[in-house]
Specification:
This protein has five helices and seven strands. By secondary structure, it is an alpha+beta fold. It has a domain of 87 residues: 2-Layer Sandwich (Dihydrodipicolinate Reductase, domain 2). Strands 3, 4, 5, 6 and 7 form a five-stranded mixed beta sheet that branches. Strand 4, helix 3 and strand 5 form a beta-alpha-beta unit.
Length: 161
Amino acid sequence: MNTLVPERHIPSHQGPDAQSVDPDLDVVTMAVKVPQTLAHLHYWTVDLTRNATKEEVLDAFRASSRIAFVRTSDGITALNTVKELMADLGRPHDNLYEVALWEDMLEVKNGELFYAYMVDNQAIVIPDTIDAIRAVTGLSNDAQSSISRTNASLGVGTFLS
């Protein structure tokens, strides 16, 4: 307790994990281990391939139904406050199925994008697992219809943004 442990290897496992899905992703990750069981907190710095405004970036993130925007200005200032919001909103087990992205922390400066997001340690995999089961079993051959069905059944996107 009460300590931070830098991960010894650069990149940390997150970058190579992401590259297993998108081999062209140019990313280097570093991590710090903390005594935290609620969620992971990620900070990203991205070199943009073209100049973009903050609104353009936010609109790109809004295209995903599984990204929920939170704001420090609304009192959502830490991982526990996101989980408390999920409890207040009646989510089972305080589950956050979406990635919670801090909208008012996102910045674009000189061709670089800076943002932070939270990933619920347990719940984040639930929607994707449901969609994967449908795909593997042939219950759905259309990704978007499966995603929509899963989102509706879990209430994804209905509490936040």
